[in-house]
């Protein structure tokens, strides 16, 4: 009987040792993950503390990379992946971020980001600090930005001619719906524009739908922004005049 009790005590002691080793291992494992988590958190804090300089590297790190290039990369019609591409779109960047405030679509720039971006654009969008001191002339985007008005002449110039007629014209891939003139638009058998009734006008339906038949086509370009669509709606609601 004593031998059996002693044997059981040895087994119990052995199990205690195994359990203790397991607990120590778990504690060590938990502790070993803390430095990595701390480093990640420290990196995020450091990024927020980085100076917001008025040059391209800072604008790229603080605005274009986190907010823009996910959608406006090299395969996008509006490419903002490089400084050269951004220089080609300065007027549009100013319009959609500072005037219309329709971009970024899925986020909102802080007041500081808007202010610094505006300053950078006003300086001529310098690539470096040195360049900012060498730019004697204002950048093109300082010129008044033409905004779409509820007039056919404005809608044709800023929307139809830029986003539609490449397909919707004689010889285009969608020549059956010709949008090259007021007469073609208003005389379309598809009832593209019903004066005074934007909700039943084919043009508004095409611009606001969310499936693959949306216009402009999703595979070719992004949808018109909400302010532009609202202007077109107003033009139709006010009688769709040829002005």
Give a written overview of the molecule.
The chain has helices spanning 2-49, 56-68, 83-88, 90-99, 111-122, 129-132, 152-163, 182-186, 202-208, 226-237. The protein has 243 residues and is mostly helical. 17% of the residues are buried.
Overall residue-averaged pLDDT value: 78
Helix residue percentage: 40-55%
Total helical segments: 10
Order of helices and strands: HHHHHHHHHH
Strand count, sense and barrel status of the largest sheet are:
none
Radius of gyration: 30 Å
Distance between the termini: 111 Å
Spans with pLDDT under 50 lasting ≥5 residues? 15-36, 43-47
User: How would you sum up the global shape?
Assistant: elongated
Task: Give a quick precis of the structure.
The chain has 243 residues and is mainly α.
């Amino acid at each position: 009987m004593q031998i059996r009790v002693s044997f059981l005590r040895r087994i119990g002691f052995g199990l205690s040792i195994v359990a203790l080793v397991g607990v120590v291992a778990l504690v060590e494992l938990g502790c070993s993950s803390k430095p990595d988590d701390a480093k990640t958190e420290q990196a995020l804090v450091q990024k927020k503390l980085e100076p917001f300089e008025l040059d391209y590297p800072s604008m790229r790190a603080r605005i274009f990379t986190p907010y823009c290039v996910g959608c406006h990369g090299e395969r996008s019609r509006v490419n903002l992946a490089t400084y050269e591409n951004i220089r080609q779109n300065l007027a549009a960047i100013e319009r959609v971020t500072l005037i219309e405030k329709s971009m970024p679509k899925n986020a909102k720039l802080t007041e500081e980001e808007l202010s610094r971006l505006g300053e950078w654009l006003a300086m001529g969008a310098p690539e470096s600090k040195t360049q900012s001191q060498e730019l004697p002339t204002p950048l093109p985007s300082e010129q008044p930005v033409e905004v779409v008005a509820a007039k056919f002449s404005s809608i044709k110039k800023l929307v139809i001619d830029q986003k539609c007629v490449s397909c919707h014209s004689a010889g285009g891939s969608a020549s059956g719906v010709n949008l090259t003139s007021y007469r073609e638009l208003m005389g379309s058998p598809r009832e593209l524009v019903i004066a005074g009734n934007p909700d039943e006008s084919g043009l508004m339906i095409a611009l606001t739908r969310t499936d693959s038949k949306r216009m402009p086509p999703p595979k070719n370009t992004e949808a018109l922004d909400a302010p532009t669509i609202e202007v077109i709606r107003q033009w139709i609601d006010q009688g769709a005049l040829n002005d």
